Amino acid sequence: MKTPAATLVIGATGTTGRRVTAGLIAEGHRVRAAGRNATPVAGAEAVRFDWNDPATWDEALDGVDRAYLVPPIGSSDPAAVMLPFLRRARAAGVRRAVLLSSSAIPAGGPAVGQVHQALPGLFEQWAVLRPSWFMQNFADAAPHARSIRDEGAIMSASGEGRVGFIDAEDIAAVAVRALTDDQAPNTDLILTGPQTLSYAEVAATIAEVTGRPVVHRQLTFEQLRDRWAAEIPLEFATMLAWMDRAIAEGAEDRTSDTVQRLTGRPPGTFRAFAEREVPRGR
User: 122-137, pLDDT tens digit by residue?
Assistant: First the structure.
């Protein structure tokens, strides 16, 4: 009997990738779990993959007919490596591609926006997921989580701007539907949580849930850029700081019905996320 084609999940141990992998496996789909270290993932076929090493591409694509694409982290020009890979993927038999982008970046915009613009010309079946800011930015080893632990504060240049923060669980649930439903979305999908919150409201919720003081500390554009630039390339840090400025101007003050429409259930609230994933106490 012929082996069924697999779904390639790039970044299979990352924030969304591990959840997409788990969701696909739970529904009985064959998964090739791709990452730079080919980390074993229960129920999946681990394979080494590096955007910057084309020698890893062919093995990752072997037996694959669809792919979940997480852009290279920290790159201000992901199209430089992603488009050559996607052309090879199409030639290898991949017919559906689901790209993780951002609500802040439209088709043709900077960074992954260039990949978004090219995707419909490469694949007849496609989707671009454009989630708002992740709730998981406040958990585990993410920068906001570190500043909460170390300084009791969330640092941003977002002012009183509001964001429809979304749980990575909901992003992954939409990704599974986009990858496996009979009809691909063939569009971009804005993904948000059920409500918009300011960073001050986020800080207050985390303080209530964890029982420790947390405040929102407002930075200037330059202060935030320089803070990010201590950890990531300046060009990428500048782009992130511009995104915070856009939040202050109202760019993320919106919600969508996409999670409900594609998964049949409402998106999770920020409080439910915090109670599940943000550690309590000091």
Answer: 999 999 999 999 999 9
